[in-house]
Amino acid sequence: MSPFDEYLHTAIERARMEAHEDGSDAAEAHHLLLAVAGAPEPVAGPVLAAAGLDRAAVAEALHREYEASLAVVGVDLASFDLAPPVRTPLRSIRIGATLKQLLQRSFTTSRKKDLRPAHILLGLLQIEAGTVPRALAIAGVDRAALAADVRRAL
Amino acid sequence: MADADLPAPEDPADALAAVAALRRLADHLEDTAVERAMRAGWGWPQVADALGITRQAVHKKHAKRLIAAGVELRRR
């Protein structure tokens, strides 16, 4: 395994752990974002830190995105008294659709030997629709600017 | 629901995000409701009928989770 493959494998395992912990049955792209923010590598780390994106900030933004998206159709998340779900066993956590799509788009098309760990963050920043870009916008992140910072640091 | 006459969201990004968030909320509600039903002695066919999905689907989605949590499951 190349260093990139090794890092990607570790990051996906951490994403599956994030999914397990929030009661999901699948690891999605936003779980990978949490994983990357929670254990940043040397290139992406300082870029994320400069943008104020630690794991807690990402988690907060994701929760606000969930609330805001429900509010669009008049649903108030705070009015639900939801018990934390019984967790899906870690070994049964699937790779969800958004993560699968990210992996296929970002890490199979480009030349594999040129990939470095920070390309995972770059791939996350390049997702154009869905939970990840919406949460990043809520966190006040300019995705294009952050992606440029990552490229410069590579 | 806060508003009876809430208009459908105009921005497609908002509308699609709302659908995704509702699915996630529905999943969470389903997890909790199925767990409660199974703890109360419901069988898979009853839960499946109540949810309007097949028994196979409900079993596939929830069995591992409930077994791991030590919920006693009726065989049928």
From TrEMBL, chain A:
E.C. number(s) listed in UniProt: 3.4.16.4
Q: Where is the Clp R domain?
A: 1-154
Q: Name one GO molecular function term.
A: serine-type D-Ala-D-Ala carboxypeptidase activity
The alphabetized UniProt keywords are: Carboxypeptidase, Hydrolase, Protease, Repeat
Statement: the UniProt record of this protein carries the keyword Iron: no
Mind telling me which InterPro entries this protein's record contains? Clp_N_dom_sf, Clp_R_N
Q: What is this protein called?
A: D-alanyl-D-alanine carboxypeptidase
From TrEMBL, chain B:
This protein is called Helix-turn-helix domain-containing protein
Q: Which organism is it from?
A: Phytomonospora endophytica
